[in-house]
Amino acid sequence: MNIFADQFIINMIVVDCERMKYPNTGLFAFCDNLSRCLVDLSSKERVDMEFFVPSNIEGRWGNGVKYRPVHDIYKLWLPCTSDVKVWHTTQNTSPYCPPARVKRVLTMHDLNFLYELPLSKHARYMRKFQDSIDRADRIVAISRSTKRDIEENLNLSGKSIEVIYNGLNFFDGEIVPPQVKPDGKFIFSVGTILRKKNFHVLPRLLKGNDYRLVIAGNISSNSYCAEILEQARQWGVESRVTITGPVSEPVKQWYLQNCDAFVFPSIAEGFGLPVIEAMRYGKPIFLSDHTSLPEIGGDKAFYFDHFFDPDAMRARFEEGMKIYADGGVDADAMRAYAESFSWENTSRLYMDIYKELL
Fold first, then answer.
1. pLDDT tens digits, residue range 276-330?
2. What's the pTM value of the predicted model, to 2 decimals?
Protein backbone atom coordinates (compact mmCIF):
# COMPACT_ATOMS: atom_id res chain seq x y z
CA MET A 1 0.00 0.00 0.00
CA ASN A 2 1.29 3.46 -0.91
CA ILE A 3 0.07 6.39 1.17
CA PHE A 4 0.82 8.65 -1.81
CA ALA A 5 -0.84 6.52 -4.47
CA ASP A 6 -2.88 9.49 -5.70
CA GLN A 7 0.28 11.33 -6.76
CA PHE A 8 2.51 10.92 -9.77
CA ILE A 9 5.84 10.52 -8.00
CA ILE A 10 8.77 12.41 -9.46
CA ASN A 11 10.74 13.19 -6.30
CA MET A 12 11.64 10.39 -3.93
CA ILE A 13 13.69 10.74 -0.74
CA VAL A 14 15.38 7.58 0.55
CA VAL A 15 16.68 7.27 4.11
CA ASP A 16 19.41 4.65 4.62
CA CYS A 17 18.57 2.71 7.81
CA GLU A 18 20.75 -0.29 7.02
CA ARG A 19 22.55 -0.01 10.39
CA MET A 20 19.34 -1.05 12.13
CA LYS A 21 20.58 -4.60 11.67
CA TYR A 22 22.41 -3.95 14.96
CA PRO A 23 19.82 -3.60 17.76
CA ASN A 24 20.45 -1.90 21.10
CA THR A 25 22.90 0.60 19.56
CA GLY A 26 22.97 4.36 19.14
CA LEU A 27 22.65 4.10 15.36
CA PHE A 28 19.60 1.88 15.68
CA ALA A 29 17.96 4.46 17.98
CA PHE A 30 18.94 7.31 15.65
CA CYS A 31 17.43 5.69 12.54
CA ASP A 32 14.36 4.43 14.38
CA ASN A 33 13.38 7.73 15.99
CA LEU A 34 14.25 9.90 13.02
CA SER A 35 12.36 7.66 10.58
CA ARG A 36 9.28 7.45 12.79
CA CYS A 37 9.05 11.24 12.88
CA LEU A 38 9.83 11.61 9.15
CA VAL A 39 6.93 9.28 8.32
CA ASP A 40 4.52 11.55 10.20
CA LEU A 41 6.04 14.68 8.69
CA SER A 42 6.10 13.40 5.10
CA SER A 43 2.43 12.49 5.34
CA LYS A 44 1.56 16.03 6.41
CA GLU A 45 3.70 17.64 3.71
CA ARG A 46 2.91 15.08 1.00
CA VAL A 47 6.58 14.33 0.43
CA ASP A 48 7.31 10.83 -0.87
CA MET A 49 9.81 8.84 1.18
CA GLU A 50 11.26 5.37 1.23
CA PHE A 51 13.32 3.64 3.91
CA PHE A 52 16.28 1.39 3.07
CA VAL A 53 16.08 -1.27 5.79
CA PRO A 54 17.03 -4.82 6.77
CA SER A 55 14.18 -7.24 6.07
CA ASN A 56 13.24 -7.61 9.75
CA ILE A 57 12.54 -3.86 9.98
CA GLU A 58 10.00 -3.78 7.14
CA GLY A 59 6.64 -2.67 8.53
CA ARG A 60 8.12 -1.08 11.67
CA TRP A 61 6.70 2.40 10.98
CA GLY A 62 3.43 1.24 9.42
CA ASN A 63 2.24 -0.87 6.52
CA GLY A 64 1.53 2.18 4.40
CA VAL A 65 5.20 3.21 4.41
CA LYS A 66 7.57 2.32 1.56
CA TYR A 67 10.46 0.03 2.45
CA ARG A 68 13.41 -0.81 0.25
CA PRO A 69 15.06 -4.06 1.45
CA VAL A 70 18.83 -4.19 1.84
CA HIS A 71 20.78 -6.71 -0.26
CA ASP A 72 24.55 -7.22 -0.07
CA ILE A 73 24.81 -6.97 -3.86
CA TYR A 74 23.80 -3.31 -3.53
CA LYS A 75 27.27 -2.61 -2.12
CA LEU A 76 28.55 -3.19 -5.66
CA TRP A 77 25.68 -1.56 -7.51
CA LEU A 78 22.78 0.30 -5.92
CA PRO A 79 19.81 0.51 -8.30
CA CYS A 80 18.00 3.85 -8.16
CA THR A 81 15.13 4.65 -10.49
CA SER A 82 14.88 8.15 -11.93
CA ASP A 83 12.39 9.23 -9.27
CA VAL A 84 15.01 8.95 -6.48
CA LYS A 85 16.31 12.49 -6.06
CA VAL A 86 17.73 12.56 -2.49
CA TRP A 87 19.51 9.82 -0.53
CA HIS A 88 20.18 10.32 3.19
CA THR A 89 23.21 8.37 4.40
CA THR A 90 22.69 8.19 8.15
CA GLN A 91 26.15 6.99 9.18
CA ASN A 92 29.73 8.09 8.63
CA THR A 93 30.77 5.51 6.05
CA SER A 94 28.03 3.55 4.36
CA PRO A 95 28.98 1.00 1.69
CA TYR A 96 25.71 1.78 -0.14
CA CYS A 97 26.21 4.68 -2.55
CA PRO A 98 23.54 6.00 -4.91
CA PRO A 99 24.42 7.19 -8.45
CA ALA A 100 26.12 10.57 -8.75
CA ARG A 101 22.94 12.21 -10.11
CA VAL A 102 21.23 11.63 -6.72
CA LYS A 103 21.73 14.36 -4.13
CA ARG A 104 23.25 12.97 -0.96
CA VAL A 105 22.76 14.10 2.64
CA LEU A 106 25.41 12.74 5.01
CA THR A 107 25.06 12.56 8.80
CA MET A 108 28.44 12.41 10.53
CA HIS A 109 28.15 11.10 14.08
CA ASP A 110 31.75 11.25 15.23
CA LEU A 111 35.42 10.86 14.45
CA ASN A 112 35.96 8.62 17.46
CA PHE A 113 38.94 6.86 15.90
CA LEU A 114 40.94 10.01 16.67
CA TYR A 115 40.54 9.25 20.38
CA GLU A 116 40.34 5.45 20.36
CA LEU A 117 43.16 4.37 18.05
CA PRO A 118 46.90 5.06 17.76
CA LEU A 119 47.98 7.58 15.13
CA SER A 120 49.36 4.79 12.95
CA LYS A 121 45.80 3.53 12.32
CA HIS A 122 44.18 6.88 11.53
CA ALA A 123 44.94 6.95 7.80
CA ARG A 124 42.56 4.10 6.91
CA TYR A 125 39.63 5.79 8.60
CA MET A 126 40.55 9.19 7.22
CA ARG A 127 40.34 7.84 3.65
CA LYS A 128 36.92 6.32 4.25
CA PHE A 129 35.53 9.40 5.96
CA GLN A 130 37.00 11.69 3.31
CA ASP A 131 35.34 9.63 0.59
CA SER A 132 31.98 10.08 2.32
CA ILE A 133 32.53 13.82 2.60
CA ASP A 134 33.52 14.08 -1.08
CA ARG A 135 30.32 12.32 -2.19
CA ALA A 136 27.99 14.43 -0.03
CA ASP A 137 26.00 17.46 -1.12
CA ARG A 138 24.98 18.41 2.43
CA ILE A 139 26.77 17.46 5.63
CA VAL A 140 25.20 17.30 9.08
CA ALA A 141 27.08 16.80 12.37
CA ILE A 142 25.21 15.70 15.48
CA SER A 143 27.17 18.03 17.79
CA ARG A 144 29.49 21.01 17.66
CA SER A 145 32.23 18.70 18.92
CA THR A 146 31.83 16.44 15.88
CA LYS A 147 31.68 19.44 13.57
CA ARG A 148 34.94 20.75 15.00
CA ASP A 149 36.66 17.39 14.54
CA ILE A 150 35.50 17.23 10.91
CA GLU A 151 36.65 20.76 10.13
CA GLU A 152 40.06 20.18 11.72
CA ASN A 153 40.81 16.79 10.17
CA LEU A 154 39.03 16.47 6.81
CA ASN A 155 39.01 18.46 3.58
CA LEU A 156 35.55 19.96 3.10
CA SER A 157 36.38 21.61 -0.25
CA GLY A 158 34.28 24.61 0.70
CA LYS A 159 31.27 22.61 1.86
CA SER A 160 29.56 23.83 5.01
CA ILE A 161 28.44 21.68 7.93
CA GLU A 162 25.37 22.29 10.01
CA VAL A 163 24.71 20.88 13.45
CA ILE A 164 21.44 19.06 14.12
CA TYR A 165 21.19 17.54 17.57
CA ASN A 166 19.62 14.16 18.18
CA GLY A 167 16.33 13.98 20.04
CA LEU A 168 15.39 12.39 23.33
CA ASN A 169 14.31 8.76 23.02
CA PHE A 170 11.00 9.43 24.76
CA PHE A 171 9.82 6.12 26.17
CA ASP A 172 6.13 5.96 27.04
CA GLY A 173 5.63 2.20 27.28
CA GLU A 174 5.47 -0.03 30.32
CA ILE A 175 8.67 -0.04 32.36
CA VAL A 176 9.77 -3.58 33.22
CA PRO A 177 12.21 -4.54 36.01
CA PRO A 178 15.09 -6.93 35.28
CA GLN A 179 14.71 -10.54 36.32
CA VAL A 180 17.26 -9.93 39.08
CA LYS A 181 17.09 -6.46 40.63
CA PRO A 182 20.17 -4.87 42.20
CA ASP A 183 20.30 -5.58 45.92
CA GLY A 184 20.50 -2.09 47.40
CA LYS A 185 21.60 1.30 46.10
CA PHE A 186 23.21 1.30 42.67
CA ILE A 187 24.78 3.50 40.04
CA PHE A 188 24.10 2.74 36.39
CA SER A 189 25.81 3.05 33.03
CA VAL A 190 24.84 1.84 29.59
CA GLY A 191 26.55 1.44 26.23
CA THR A 192 28.28 -1.08 24.01
CA ILE A 193 31.07 -2.71 26.01
CA LEU A 194 34.02 -1.16 24.19
CA ARG A 195 37.20 0.43 25.49
CA LYS A 196 36.17 3.91 24.37
CA LYS A 197 33.31 3.77 26.87
CA ASN A 198 35.95 3.70 29.61
CA PHE A 199 33.81 1.59 31.95
CA HIS A 200 36.88 0.17 33.68
CA VAL A 201 37.37 3.42 35.65
CA LEU A 202 33.98 3.04 37.38
CA PRO A 203 34.62 0.29 39.99
CA ARG A 204 36.87 2.66 41.93
CA LEU A 205 33.78 4.75 42.73
CA LEU A 206 32.52 1.92 44.96
CA LYS A 207 35.44 2.08 47.39
CA GLY A 208 34.36 3.30 50.81
CA ASN A 209 30.58 3.02 50.23
CA ASP A 210 27.91 0.38 49.73
CA TYR A 211 26.79 1.26 46.20
CA ARG A 212 26.57 -1.34 43.48
CA LEU A 213 27.50 -0.73 39.84
CA VAL A 214 25.37 -2.00 36.95
CA ILE A 215 26.65 -1.71 33.37
CA ALA A 216 24.25 -2.69 30.55
CA GLY A 217 24.93 -2.99 26.83
CA ASN A 218 25.94 -5.17 23.91
CA ILE A 219 29.13 -7.06 24.69
CA SER A 220 31.51 -6.45 21.79
CA SER A 221 34.66 -7.34 23.69
CA ASN A 222 34.87 -10.19 26.20
CA SER A 223 38.44 -9.17 26.97
CA TYR A 224 37.30 -5.69 27.94
CA CYS A 225 34.57 -7.16 30.17
CA ALA A 226 37.31 -9.14 31.87
CA GLU A 227 39.36 -5.98 32.34
CA ILE A 228 36.42 -4.19 33.97
CA LEU A 229 35.93 -7.08 36.39
CA GLU A 230 39.68 -7.25 37.07
CA GLN A 231 39.61 -3.58 38.04
CA ALA A 232 36.69 -4.36 40.36
CA ARG A 233 38.72 -7.17 41.92
CA GLN A 234 41.69 -4.89 42.46
CA TRP A 235 39.49 -2.37 44.26
CA GLY A 236 37.90 -5.14 46.33
CA VAL A 237 34.41 -4.54 44.96
CA GLU A 238 34.01 -7.38 42.43
CA SER A 239 30.90 -8.73 44.20
CA ARG A 240 29.17 -5.36 43.67
CA VAL A 241 29.79 -4.99 39.91
CA THR A 242 27.39 -6.46 37.35
CA ILE A 243 27.70 -6.43 33.56
CA THR A 244 24.24 -7.43 32.33
CA GLY A 245 24.81 -7.63 28.58
CA PRO A 246 22.12 -6.16 26.30
CA VAL A 247 18.80 -5.22 27.90
CA SER A 248 15.43 -4.38 26.37
CA GLU A 249 14.24 -0.78 26.25
CA PRO A 250 11.64 -1.30 29.04
CA VAL A 251 14.32 -2.79 31.30
CA LYS A 252 16.82 -0.05 30.48
CA GLN A 253 14.22 2.51 31.47
CA TRP A 254 13.76 0.70 34.81
CA TYR A 255 17.47 1.03 35.52
CA LEU A 256 17.41 4.73 34.61
CA GLN A 257 14.33 5.34 36.74
CA ASN A 258 15.60 3.47 39.80
CA CYS A 259 19.34 4.11 39.89
CA ASP A 260 20.82 6.47 42.46
CA ALA A 261 23.11 8.07 39.88
CA PHE A 262 23.96 7.74 36.19
CA VAL A 263 27.64 7.56 35.26
CA PHE A 264 29.07 7.85 31.75
CA PRO A 265 32.87 8.18 31.58
CA SER A 266 33.24 7.72 27.79
CA ILE A 267 36.24 9.31 26.10
CA ALA A 268 34.72 9.39 22.60
CA GLU A 269 31.10 10.35 21.93
CA GLY A 270 29.53 12.10 18.98
CA PHE A 271 26.49 13.00 21.07
CA GLY A 272 25.73 10.70 24.02
CA LEU A 273 22.03 9.80 23.91
CA PRO A 274 22.05 8.00 27.29
CA VAL A 275 22.90 11.30 28.98
CA ILE A 276 19.64 13.03 28.14
CA GLU A 277 17.71 9.80 28.67
CA ALA A 278 18.98 9.72 32.27
CA MET A 279 18.32 13.43 32.73
CA ARG A 280 14.66 12.85 31.97
CA TYR A 281 14.46 11.03 35.30
CA GLY A 282 16.14 13.87 37.19
CA LYS A 283 19.03 11.73 38.43
CA PRO A 284 22.49 13.04 39.36
CA ILE A 285 24.64 12.70 36.23
CA PHE A 286 28.40 12.13 36.22
CA LEU A 287 30.25 12.40 32.90
CA SER A 288 33.72 12.62 31.48
CA ASP A 289 34.71 16.00 30.07
CA HIS A 290 35.82 14.48 26.75
CA THR A 291 34.51 15.18 23.22
CA SER A 292 30.78 16.06 23.09
CA LEU A 293 29.76 15.25 26.66
CA PRO A 294 30.27 18.73 28.19
CA GLU A 295 28.32 20.18 25.27
CA ILE A 296 25.35 17.85 25.82
CA GLY A 297 25.51 17.67 29.62
CA GLY A 298 26.00 21.42 30.06
CA ASP A 299 25.57 22.69 33.58
CA LYS A 300 23.13 19.88 34.39
CA ALA A 301 25.89 17.33 35.04
CA PHE A 302 28.95 16.78 37.20
CA TYR A 303 32.26 16.02 35.47
CA PHE A 304 35.01 13.61 36.44
CA ASP A 305 38.69 14.53 36.47
CA HIS A 306 39.92 14.71 32.87
CA PHE A 307 42.57 12.05 33.46
CA PHE A 308 40.34 9.88 35.71
CA ASP A 309 42.54 10.08 38.79
CA PRO A 310 40.91 7.64 41.25
CA ASP A 311 40.96 9.93 44.28
CA ALA A 312 39.68 12.90 42.26
CA MET A 313 36.90 10.80 40.74
CA ARG A 314 35.72 9.57 44.13
CA ALA A 315 35.85 13.07 45.58
CA ARG A 316 33.80 14.42 42.69
CA PHE A 317 31.26 11.63 43.01
CA GLU A 318 30.87 12.14 46.76
CA GLU A 319 30.59 15.91 46.30
CA GLY A 320 27.98 15.60 43.55
CA MET A 321 25.88 13.12 45.49
CA LYS A 322 25.91 15.42 48.54
CA ILE A 323 24.91 18.43 46.43
CA TYR A 324 22.06 16.39 44.97
CA ALA A 325 20.92 15.11 48.39
CA ASP A 326 20.96 18.66 49.77
CA GLY A 327 18.66 19.88 46.99
CA GLY A 328 21.37 21.66 45.03
CA VAL A 329 20.27 20.11 41.72
CA ASP A 330 17.05 21.30 40.06
CA ALA A 331 15.61 18.00 38.85
CA ASP A 332 12.68 19.72 37.11
CA ALA A 333 15.06 21.95 35.14
CA MET A 334 17.06 18.86 34.21
CA ARG A 335 13.96 17.11 32.88
CA ALA A 336 12.92 20.18 30.90
CA TYR A 337 16.39 20.44 29.41
CA ALA A 338 16.35 16.77 28.36
CA GLU A 339 12.93 17.14 26.75
CA SER A 340 14.13 20.15 24.75
CA PHE A 341 15.99 17.62 22.57
CA SER A 342 13.13 16.63 20.29
CA TRP A 343 13.08 14.14 17.42
CA GLU A 344 10.18 16.11 15.96
CA ASN A 345 12.43 19.17 15.74
CA THR A 346 15.30 17.06 14.42
CA SER A 347 13.15 15.54 11.67
CA ARG A 348 11.87 18.99 10.66
CA LEU A 349 15.43 20.26 10.18
CA TYR A 350 16.32 17.23 8.05
CA MET A 351 13.13 17.64 6.02
CA ASP A 352 14.10 21.25 5.31
CA ILE A 353 17.41 20.02 3.89
CA TYR A 354 15.69 17.39 1.72
CA LYS A 355 13.30 19.97 0.32
CA GLU A 356 16.12 22.41 -0.44
CA LEU A 357 17.91 19.72 -2.42
CA LEU A 358 14.72 18.87 -4.32
1. 999 999 999 999 999 999 999 999 999 999 999 999 999 999 999 999 999 999 9
2. 0.93
Long-range contacts from 151-160, C-beta under 8 angstroms, 24+ separation? 153/111, 153/114, 153/126, 154/126, 154/129, 154/130, 155/130, 157/133, 159/133
Contact call for residues 18 and 54 (beta carbons, < 8 A): yes
Length of the chain, in residues: 358
Longest dimension (CA), the chain: 69
Which letter does DSSP use for residue 193 in this model?
Answer: B
Smallest Cα–Cα separation from 199: which of 179, 183, 219?
A: 219
Q: Compute CA distances 307 → 289, 310, 311, 312, whole Å.
A: 9, 9, 11, 9
Q: Are 13 and 88 in contact (CB under 8 A)?
A: yes
How distant, in Å, are the alpha carbons of 81, 85, 142, 190, 351 from that of 355?
Answer: 19, 10, 20, 36, 6
- Give the tens place of pLDDT for each residue, 51-108: 999 999 999 999 999 999 999 999 999 999 899 999 999 999 999 999 999 999 999 9
